[in-house]
Amino acid sequence: MSNRIFKESQTYFGTWVMYFIILTEVPILILLTVLYATSNDKQEMAIALGVVLATMALLFALIFNLKLETRIDAKSIAFRYTPFIRKWRHFPKKEIKSCKVITYSPITDYGGWGFKGNKTTKAYSVLGNEGLLMDVGEKKKIMIGTMKSKELTDFMKNWMEE
Fold first, then answer.
1. pTM for the complete prediction?
2. pLDDT in tens, 53-105
3. Rounded distance between C-alpha atoms, residue 129 and residue 106, angstroms
């Protein structure tokens, strides 16, 4: 097991979130285009259309650049949540008191998906309701979401004992 590595990368691309955003943005763009075409003040509508288009494009780009990456090897657990956390955050095995794969309620337990938390608990998730909960001491817990809970459970069975 010493040379085994668990890797996972999660994004919003191809999920219901992507389709929801597209389904809400397209009617707004159609409505604004119709308003622009029927407007007497084309300059004012062009500015409004430009602002809305730019805002939607930036939001779309942000959501589709979000990526949660997890890497677990014999020495540590590491993750990053780009573009907000660009450098890998490493937790050496000797500093981790306990870790287990859990099923949680994203809304009630952590306040939703994304990166959430307070002084004692941090949660990093993209979608789903399963994750790796780590106790890193000093009353601090970190939950990293996963879409591969079965693989992660199998990997973690003997990880802490080695």
1. 0.79
2. 898 889 888 888 899 999 999 889 999 999 999 999 999 988 888 899 999 98
3. 6
